[in-house]
Amino acid sequence: MPEIQKEILRTLQKMEERQNKQLNAFSRRVTLLETEIKDFKQAQTALDEGLQNLAVLSESLLGRSSRFKR
31-55: string of b/e by CB count within 10 Å (b at 16+)? Predict the structure, then answer.
């Protein structure tokens, strides 16, 4: 194989290696973002449940306080 073809092949292999590294880094970032989104959704669900519990407790306390006023 002529030297120029070998050089072109080496250059293409280096470019492929670089692209593979970039793709792997991008995939890791996507995975991290997916994990953060999942964690955020879990936290949001817990917050919603806590707010619902607070609303029930508030209603209960308001009901009790109106009974004491009578």
Answer: eeeeeeeeeeeeeeeeeeeeeeeee
Each residue's pLDDT tens digit, 1-43: 799 999 999 999 999 999 999 999 999 999 999 999 999 999 9
Q: By three-state DSSP, how is residue 2 classified?
A: coil
Q: Which amino acid is at 49?
A: E
Start-to-end CA distance of the chain, whole Å, equals: 101
